[in-house]
Specification:
Keywords: Signal. The chain is built from 29 helices and 36 strands. By secondary structure, the chain is of the alpha+beta class.
């Protein structure tokens, strides 16, 4: 890979992906349009850029081995044979491939052959192209099938490399065919000065491989080093006369799959590295010679140096101006044809054309700095491999980017001339996190350690929520300051994206955790003076921010998205490969809630800390009567998580996750109101104990307490409209439980005025109407509730009851049958009870209607004894005994007795035994369980048939 890594808004390894099929088609179409009339055979061969010839005599034919154990796949590669011979006239790289098409989905890959080469120093020879079908060989090597495409796949990254692609798309390929082809590439990039370097893959993204062989033939006196990270590769070497043969073999190779989260150093473990450079000193000497050819005197550069000296009085200021000039006035564009893949262009040429790639700009910056009296040296770095470059063989191929090491006083600054979005002082622009680099200086024998990223401040965010009144929308003022690389990426995104898309990008993480917010206006963006930073301020309106859990307090989300985004895990689990972590460095996020009145009685201050080998997280929680705040600091200090530590790392994240996204609770009553409420609660408890307030069940006692609390909360007037409606519904429910349906109805009407689109409001109104025997209203409100919340089973039961008592029996029966399609409702048994009653009231066989609806448990829970009584398999006394199950001897369960007597009365009515029905209805009412639907239904039935 050349020294032309594009800096700025990095797209990661996905930028190295292949062109799409549409791009290939476009290139093929362009080539067809440019086709010229046929010339002589010799001229045609040269013009086409390839030739057809027999395989070299030194190639040893290789046959595939038995593929037992090779993973099945639509396309398998039975053999990949690569043989390389280093000759004085140029290295010959022979490649022989055999593909097996097993499924229709493998036809596309199997039918397409693409070979990249650089025509400035390489020649392409085709030796064979065959399809094997039913044991017969079909020769497909025809000149007309071979199309040469000039695709420039890196053009979007502002790089042209002049490489050509020889493309063949086979016709009439079928499942079961084998495709076999062999080619040779002849020639060496002259930039390496006659030294051999290469890196070959022992796997394929096309499919699993039965056998991969790499054969290297080199003159015996030349020392070619190799390094392999994959342990399954077998290596052997022998000397035969003047030639040394080294073989690398790997069998039953799994298909290579690119995964974005895998560290690059791990992803390239399938490579065999080859290098004739003995050590890093030789690589450094080679690089020094390349840069020396480029850094030549240029009058235009002398003039620029004089301008800078006239403007700046200190070395630091001269460095800043020189860096500004190269970064901003020399645009990024790489011409990397042939030797220019690594050879920088002369500084005079770069100045004249006003563009260059990383190595060109590094050479220009170093040359300019030297004219300004500032010591500087080009340096090679690995923007992809980073620290893993130290594990590579000494070779130019270990690097993909060039920067400058600048000496400013006692400090060495590693500066990147391609980062056009940088601002601020030179020290603020230092490249961090690149791991290692190599100074282009022959005297340099070792890799240099570059500044780590662990202490680099990446992003700091302060979110301030303000709520002048809890019953009204609040605001959020979010201020984020991006530093270093992140500031540059955001500047580049701002320049590349439409304003609306950029705003959405900035707000995305905040809205993920606060979905009720809406952005107000446009972001305010500024550059802090003297810093390589970008400050972004966004204002939001809170909207429906608060919820009302358990109708006791307000609850709102509180999150630290800046920290969460860095720790977010991919979906894959369990994991068998290491995982690349987010960019090392420090991330800060503070969330502050401000209120206009004191809501909390006491100040608070607590801390949380988590330390491990991957990250450090520190949180501080502070509270005051009018304020709550979380301050978070995350330090990412590892570049990756080893596969064996994945589970432990996930557990660490699960431990801290609730700390990073949780709920803030806000009391809806003032301190004085809370004191008063506690006093009233104590008085209420005393009244219930001394009997001055008669309650027959725990539910009734709870209803009195809840009603008292709701009255106090509503009087405090701190709830926004929708939540006030929820409080009114809660108040109405408690009033219904106490048999005060008229008062409950008033609360519900008030709730509907505030929030008529609430399913809870209409569900409660349906129950209230049913209790007041307003069946049509009950059905209407239940309909509305279900339109708003279709899965509300409670509203469906209310509608069933209203239809049952309102005479709409067929509709009630149909709905019950639909409800009982849910197994959970069969287990609860109430649906079965009402289906029995409805069916019998329709004159049908009630037992047949529920025959298949028995709960699955060995001892079904209440109210199954009621169903048994209705079926006749249990008498009333037996059902009463089961109603008392779990109670102290002699003690009744009023709620169960209320239900049992009501349903016994219903059965008596269906049996036309009015005296018995009256008796059971009176016993149901005698329980005093006014909070049960069965109580109000019993009163309704007794009124209908008469008490006597």
């Amino acid at each position: 890979m050349s020294f032309a890594r594009r800096r700025g808004l990095q797209l990661g390894l996905s930028a190295l992906a292949l062109l799409s099929a549409s791009s290939i088609a476009w290139a093929q179409a362009s080539a067809a349009k440019a086709k010229k009339p046929a010339a002589t055979a010799a001229a045609t061969k040269e013009a086409e850029g390839f030739s057809i010839a027999p395989a070299p005599a030194w190639v040893l034919p290789l046959q595939p081995e038995a593929s037992t154990g090779l993973p099945s796949a639509p396309l398998q590669l039975l053999l990949i044979d690569k043989q390389t011979r280093i000759e004085p006239s140029g290295t010959v790289r022979y490649q022989h491939v055999l593909r097996q098409i097993n499924e229709a989905s493998g036809l596309q890959k199997g039918a397409q052959i693409e070979l990249d080469f650089d025509p400035s120093f390489q020649k392409l020879q085709f030796h064979r192209l065959e399809v094997w079908r039913d044991g017969k060989r079909l020769d497909r090597l025809e000149r007309k099938r071979i199309k040469l495409l000039h695709r420039e796949p890196q053009l979007e990254r502002q790089i042209i490399d002049g490489r050509m692609t020889a493309s063949i798309v086979l016709e009439d390929l079928r499942v079961g065919d084998r495709v076999e082809w062999a080619v040779s590439l002849i020639g060496d990039n002259p930039v390496f000065g006659g030294k051999f370097v290469d890196q070959e893959w022992t796997s394929s993204s096309g499919g699993p491989v039965g056998l991969v062989q790499l054969r290297l033939l080199s003159p015996a006196e030349r020392h070619i080093q190799h390094r392999i990270a994959e342990p399954s590769v077998e290596v052997s070497s022998r000397v035969d006369g003047a030639w040394r043969e080294t073989l690398f073999k790997r069998r039953l190779v799994p298909q290579f799959h690119y995964e974005e989260t895998v560290p690059v150093g791990v992803m390239v473990k399938d490579q065999v590295q080859l290098s004739e450079f003995a050590n890093w000193a030789e690589v450094a000497g080679w690089a020094e010679q390349l840069f020396a050819k480029a850094m030549l005197p240029a009058e235009a550069l002398d003039a620029r140096a004089r301008e800078i000296e006239a403007q700046a009085s200190t070395p630091e200021e001269r460095l800043r101006l020189a860096l500004d000039f190269v970064q901003k006035e020399i645009r990024y564009f790489g011409t990397e044809i042939g030797a220019n893949s690594h050879q920088p262009a002369p500084t005079e040429q770069v100045l004249r054309q006003r563009f260059g790639d990383c190595k060109d700009k590094a050479a220009l910056l170093v040359t300019l700095l030297k004219k300004l009296g500032i010591e500087a040296t080009p340096a090679l770095v690995a923007a992809s491999l980073r620290s893993d470059a130290a594990q590579r063989l000494p070779s130019p191929l270990a690097f993909d980017h060039a920067i400058a090491a600048v000496q400013l006083g006692e400090q060495t600054l590693w500066l990147d001339a391609t980062r056009s979005q940088q601002r601020g002082a030179p020290a603020e622009r230092q490249s961090v996190g690149l791991g290692v680099g190599l100074l282009a200086k022959a005297s340099n024998a070792e890799l240099s350690r570059l500044p780590p990223a662990r202490e680099a401040l990446r992003l700091e965010t302060v979110d301030t929520f303000s709520f002048p009144r809890l019953d009204q929308p609040g605001t959020l003022r979010s201020v984020s300051t991006f530093h270093g690389d992140m500031a540059e990426w955001m500047r580049e995104a701002r320049a590349a994206l439409p304003a609306a898309d950029f705003r959405n990008l900035l707000a995305a993480e905040t809205l993920r955790f606060y979905p009720g917010l809406t952005v107000e206006g446009e972001p305010e963006i500024s550059d802090p003076e003297g810093r390589n930073a970008l400050r972004v301020e966004i204002k939001y309106r809170s909207g429906d921010f608060w919820t009302f859990p358990e109708k006791r307090w307000l609850a709102g989300p509180i999150a630290l998205p800046t920290l969460i985004a860095q720790l977010r895990l991919p979906d894959q689990t369990p994991r068998t490969q290491p995982m690349r972590l987010a960019m090392n460095g420090r991330y800060l996020h503070t969330v502050r809630y401000e209120f206009s009145e004191p809501l909390y009685s006491q100040p608070s201050d607590s801390r949380f800390e988590e330390r491990n080998e991957h990250f450090e997280l520190r949180l501080r929680y502070r509270g005051e009567p009018k304020m709550q705040q979380i301050e978070g600091e995350l330090r990412l200090q590892a570049e990756q998580v080893a596969a064996g530590k994945w589970s432990n790392y996930r557990d660490q994240l699960n431990k801290v996750a609730p700390r990073l996204a949780n709920t803030l609770t806000v009391p809806v009553l003032s301190t004085e109101d809370l004191v008063s409420l506690r006093r009233d609660m104590t008085a209420l408890t005393d009244r219930m104990r001394n009997g001055s307030l008669k309650v027959l069940t725990e539910n009734q006692g709870s209803a009195h307490a809840r009603l008292l609390m709701m009255d106090r909360i509503l009087a405090a007037d701190r709830l926004p409209p929708k939540l006030r409606a929820a409080a009114l519904v809660e108040r109405a429910i408690q009033l219904d439980h106490l048999g005060q349906s008229d008062r409950a109805q008033t609360s519900l009407y008030d709730a509907a005025q505030l929030h008529d689109e609430s399913s809870e409001v209409h569900a409660a109104m349906a129950v209230n109407a049913l209790m007041q025997r307003k069946d049509e209203q009950a059905v209407s409100h239940a309909d509305r509730a279900l339109a708003l919340a279709p899965n509300d089973t409670g509203a469906r039961y209310t509608r069933v009851y209203a239809r049952y008592f309102g005479g709409q029996l067929q509709e009630a029966q149909k709905e019950l049958q639909e409800i009982l399609q849910s197994g959970s409702e069969v287990e609860r048994s109430y649906g079965s009870i009402w289906l029995y009653l409805t069916s019998r009231k329709l004159g049908q066989d009630g037992l047949a209607a529920i025959r298949d609806l028995r709960p699955s448990a060995d001892k079904p829970a209440w109210p199954y004894p009621v169903l048994q009584m209705l079926q006749g398999s249990l008498d009333l006394d037996g059902a009463l005994a089961m109603a008392r199950d779990g109670k102290p001897e002699g003690q009744a369960d009023r709620g169960r007795d209320c239900e049992l007597y009501f349903y016994a009365a219903q059965k008596a009515l269906l049996d036309q035994d009015l005296p018995k029905a009256r008796n059971y209805l009176k016993k149901s009412l005698a329980t005093g369980v006014v909070e049960f639907n069965e109580y109000s239904m019993a009163q309704r039935e007794l009124d209908r048939i008469g008490a006597r």
